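Hello forum,

I keep getting stuck at the same step: I have a sequence, I want structure tokens, and every attempt I make locally crashes halfway through. Rather than fight my setup again tonight, could one of you with a working pipeline run this one for me? It's a single chain of 154 residues.
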Amino acid sequence: MTVLIRNTDAEVLEASGVTLLADTPATGGHLTSHRSIFKPGKEGAPPHLHREASELFYVLTGSLRVLTGDDLITLDQGDFLVVPPNTAHAFEAAGTTDAEVLFVLTHAKPRFDYYRLLEGVYRGDTDPSVLATTSDLYDNHYVNSPTWAGREGQ
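Reply #2:
Ran it on my machine without issues. Output:
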């Protein structure tokens, strides 16, 4: 199955900075992918894990601070990271320029509606508490991380 998404055809979620590329229904269940742009200091996602999916990060521009397990690392342009299932992770822009990141989740559930739900949260149209009710549906399970909470100044 060949999947081609032209830049002009991709759905852009302006408030969250997410561009939806290909979801599992279009890829025969193999993967879901999106591109995100994070403004300096903008948190991309709080600590969470996926029970089924591995998440791949490829930094196109800028830098991204990432929690993976109990480690904090900084990814720079051209860096690639794979976070396996059941590993807590979080991320945010690092530095003074935008961070643009390509994300790919393998063995994932369909996720585009999750990003559309997040878009509503960013716009103020959706109560953030709704996200907690969708953990199993989107395989996105929020967790506590003392490492992430204590990251300021690191």
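The longest strand covers residues 31-38. If your local run keeps crashing, start a new thread with the error log.
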